[in-house]
C-alpha cells in the first residue's frame, strides 16, 4: 500500500471537487 499525507489527500479532494463542479457547470 502507498501511504501519503492527509494534506496531500485534501489537495487531491479539492482538485477533484473542482473538476466535478466544472462538469456540472459547463459555463463556469
TrEMBL record:
Q: Which UniProt keywords apply?
A: Glycosyltransferase, Transferase
Question: Which domain of life does the protein's organism represent?
Answer: Bacteria
Molecular function GO labels: glycosyltransferase activity
**What is the name listed in the Swiss-Prot or TrEMBL entry for this protein?**
Phosphoribosyltransferase
Q: Which organism's genome codes for this protein?
A: Campylobacter jejuni
Amino acid at each position: 500500500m502507498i501511504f501519503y499525507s492527509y494534506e496531500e489527500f485534501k489537495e487531491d479532494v479539492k482538485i477533484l471537487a473542482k473538476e466535478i463542479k466544472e462538469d456540472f457547470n459547463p459555463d463556469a
